[in-house]
Amino acid sequence: MRELNKEERNFLNYLRKNCSRVKYNGYIYYLDKKTKKKYKRSRVIYQIYNSVKLNKFNLIHHIDNNKGNDNIENLKVLAQEEHNSLHCAGKRRSKK
Q: 1, CA 20 to 30 Å: which among 37, 42, 45, 94?
């Protein structure tokens, strides 16, 4: 795993100091107390460690299906369609 640069470390430290951690639907978010902006912790960690900026159509998949496990080795980026098909595999839609 690569080392974080100073800017990345500063951003993580900012989140830890200025944001409260909230849990919603099993996911952990950082909630900035000043701006009221929410950051999904898994996305922040993935983007920083992989030096990428994800768009809204890229979803973070937790390999072990534990939404609280944001260890970088447990995170994988998937397109929305791929993520949906992975989680819906074997499930049948009910007809109404």
A: 37
